[in-house]
């Protein structure tokens, strides 16, 4: 024990005597350890952390599909269910003491405090079963949570408010509990406030502000209610396992219940059943642990976080190699001192232990500094990846697991980069202590330092090439042709109007909105839509009159939008064939539609003219519903993926209505008339425009609530927040890796020049000029870099193949990215080597001869 404390005191004295070395080593390690810890912090929060609930290990999710938010047919990976199917599955799972259902996705509702607020606020809500809180094991912070008694059709409407909304929206007013609120035009009572830190069962940006009993969904959604619909799957389910019970055998049993329900009780249209039976073997329910909640964010961000962790791991290896080189050079500089210690009786084990103590202390200091880097880097990543979120329930404060990770990785790196210097320290011959100071001796560590330098160069090529690929991919994503105008376009997201609004009232309201918007100063045009591009989409099965019926698959479906007459033109989406919508396409005229190029390619032969053809949705008897009057250019919508080709789309007039007989289509038709977005042609800034829009819309109807106002360019930028965060951090870490490699090359080259001072002086005394000396030094440096390039390029190609799924318009062997990596390393190497080469060329031959 005393020897250990003595080793630590001795190491600290050595650090004080070499402050430049100490600071350089600690900062180098702080970058590597800090970056790796930052990514692990997010991985822990997103992928590993348990929900803040009672006994999370007993929670299991029924299904693992990540679709959202309403699904009408087979899902393959089932994860959403209709309410009738949820009840069937719940009854077939006696191993669970409770099974709760909750809405997938949720929605923003207009909410105002009765008697206190005149303007409604858009709060995010989630419909849940009455046993939701008891299943999760969550108690109220104030008031009470809902129970099964609150979740009946005859119960008084109630809701539970989130702690975050209670504080941020209502300033922690205790009188909120028990108060009456108007939600989508209907009164309900806030019975409680959820505990701090509880964000629901799903980790996501902007979690629910309000939980409402499931049986109140028909009250809020009116004719568009999903509660009693058999076909519409919109609920997820989590069960709490009974003590001593097991989920073994549950998945096959529930899968069989699902398949029986699909065939006999699903309510699927008869024309679907042949495809449903054909797809039946693929319909499976998995039972997965849900202690960490529903893994939406894990599915969405897991791959990106793994890439960043790998990048940080490579940076950490480069940092370790750099510090190991510093320690090797320091060990050589202290060779005489070590030889004397060996000569007077110090054991080789003591020398090794001392060297390891120094390296571990450096690593721990780097780890402590790295925690500061980790917190800042994690905050930066969250700010980059979730710029549009008002609230994100992810803390960047290091947890115990993160602290343990940081300490463990610091200890491991200290041992890794300290092992080689410790071993080389014992290779010193005590006879060296008796030699003259001016004589050179063998340097056993030279080969190790060269190898570490090559490793740094190799890994730098991989990181810079990968960062260049991701950066080029992001650039191509952002600059692609979306199929509509981005400049001078402002998109406005609206809260959904109350379900009590009738079709005639909506039509009159929309006409007034367009008229008022077009009169606003600086507005050249406007449009209304069910949803704007880059926000959402709906999809339906397509039947074309006179064509064979489609199969129930992706190839048989199309997305669609309901828009006002001038929407497509004002958004810069040109009509390629036929005509645009006009005011004559209204509630008194036959239904018409405009389709995009992808729709034509999928559903019509190359020699067919789609104009004046008819098609319909979901059922054969609807095949003649819409007459195609025009073909519009392809446009990309967020729900399909902006890194994929445009999906088939069709557009129908906002003013028209189809009288369907089928209940499912009646609901869809009804809901599609509640617009979610406005578009303005204007160059006005959103900040200046929002107050004017808020005032104008509130004058038209107090229930028109704005949730966001953005330029289309801002909306595009938000769509690539995750890609931008990954590319930006990969580029940052690639630059750090390049800098560390350059520093390492400089250190090794400078040390080599110092070791060969006498040799260089003799060469110059014998006639070598300064150019030859510089060439000698640069050639030695670039030989190592060339080896790193030769090894790094194939590894970079392999890394590109691993991240190929993240790339858009860029191949995994992208020549430009590989060229940027090679060129960057060559430039950095030249800058790092030219300074020692210049010093070598300035050596005086006479000084070298006198030393010799």
Verbal overview:
The protein is an alpha+beta fold. It is built from 24 helices and 22 strands. The strands form four sheets. The protein has a six-stranded mixed barrel with strand order 3-4-9-6-8-7. A hairpin with an 8-residue loop joins strand 18 and strand 19 (626-632). Helix 1 (2-17) crosses helix 11 (348-385), helix 2 runs antiparallel to helix 12 and helix 13 (446-479) packs across helix 22. The radius of gyration is 34 Å and the shape is globular. Mean pLDDT is 83; it is low at 436-441.
What is the CA–CA distance across the termini?
46 Å
**How helix-rich are the residues, as a percent range?**
40-55%
Number of helices: 24
Order of neighbouring strands in the sheet with most strands: 3-4-9-6-8-7
Which structural class fits the helix and strand makeup?
A: alpha+beta
Total strands: the figure is 22
Uncertain segments: 436-441
Oligomer: single chain
* Radius of gyration (Å): 34 Å
Overall geometry comes to: globular
Q: Please state the average pLDDT score.
A: 83
Strand content: 5-15%
State the major sheet. 6 strands, mixed, barrel
Give a brief outline of the structure.
With 852 residues, the protein is α+β, with helices and mostly antiparallel strands. The protein is built from 24 helices and 22 strands. Strand 3 and strand 4 (121-128) form a beta hairpin.
